[in-house]
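Worked problem 6 (solution included).
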Amino acid sequence: MYTQSLQLIIAVVQPQQQERSRRRQGALTELSLRDENVLFEHTRGISRNNDRQGFAPGFRLSATGELAASRYADGSPAPVHVLDGLPEDWIAARDDAGHVTSTRPGLVSGFIRDGRFYTREEAARAAAH
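Solution. The predicted structure is:
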């Protein structure tokens, strides 16, 4: 009984610790994107609340300032933040099915409008006016 309980705790805690470690390093994951959506749910810092103001989901690589629109793996534009269509050199890890599980550190999710990148906070403020 004790061994089973311990194994269950390890199975649950280890992925959480890995996710926390990725976040401290500034890497994005599907879980961190979901958490951002929850945080900005009632603001214009999420796609469904700001797309009418011309904001498109995108990403900025902090180290270089490069921007990339959010895209599906096939390259078509995505209406929400999707990691599978990122430039290959921005990806840190993929799962067995080829889906992105983690990005390079320093990738920021936000929005692109008229060639300019907005963080979620900046987009929420700009779309409110």
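Discussion: Confidence is low (pLDDT under 50) at residues 19-24.
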